[in-house]
Amino acid sequence: MTLEQIKKILPGLSNVEFQLENGTFVPEHFHVTEIGKVSKHFIDCGGTVRNEEKVNFQLWNADDTEHRLKPGKLLNIIKLSEEKLGIEDLEIEVEYQETTIGKYDLDFNGKHFILKNKATACLAQDACGIPTEKEKISLQDLGKKVISCSPNSGCC
């Protein structure tokens, strides 16, 4: 989800709710303690230099269990961050702490925001020696597949 997308959704909500993919909700008394622009300049294992920019929201729970962040207030925080930090329409990444700080992609299911689990990946699979997946055939189909081997090809 991008910053422009969340800005369009917020005015139509009465509450701001975040839910993890496992169904657990972020406690309703959360705070958005930071909105920022995060830049990552890195090199992948294949030697390609890359740049990545995201808008970062940090969610935090305090002991003020009566606190509720309303959609208008979050919209004002977003607008202030755009003005003061020059943040443009980028993908949103959310930081939220359970046992450790986790980073999540953001989605919306029509009622509340979903913190989508992220995963690591190799960005240079062609350069780092990861074998391509072999064709899977069932034993039942093995006899139907024609295997040809020409002399001096090294396959026989």
Number of DSSP-assigned strands:
6
DSSP strand (E) fraction?
25-35%
Number of helices: 3
The rounded Rg comes to 23 Å
Name the shape in a single word: elongated
Oligomeric description of these chains: single chain
How would you briefly describe this protein structure?
The protein is of the alpha/beta class. The chain has helices at residues 3-9, 71-85, 139-142; strands at residues 18-20, 30-43, 49-61, 92-97, 101-108, 113-117.
Plain-language structure description:
The protein has 3 helices and 6 strands. The longest helix has 15 residues, at 71-85. The chain is α/β, with parallel strands linked by helices. The chain has a 6-stranded mixed β-sheet, covered by helices on one side. The model has no long low-confidence stretch (mean pLDDT 89).
Q: Which keywords apply here?
A:
156 residues, 3 helices, six-stranded mixed beta sheet, 31% strand
Show the helix and strand layout.
Elements: H1 3-9, E1 18-20, E2 30-43, E3 49-61, H2 71-85, E4 92-97, E5 101-108, E6 113-117, H3 139-142
Parallel strand pairs: 1-6, 3-4
Antiparallel strand pairs: 2-3, 4-5, 5-6
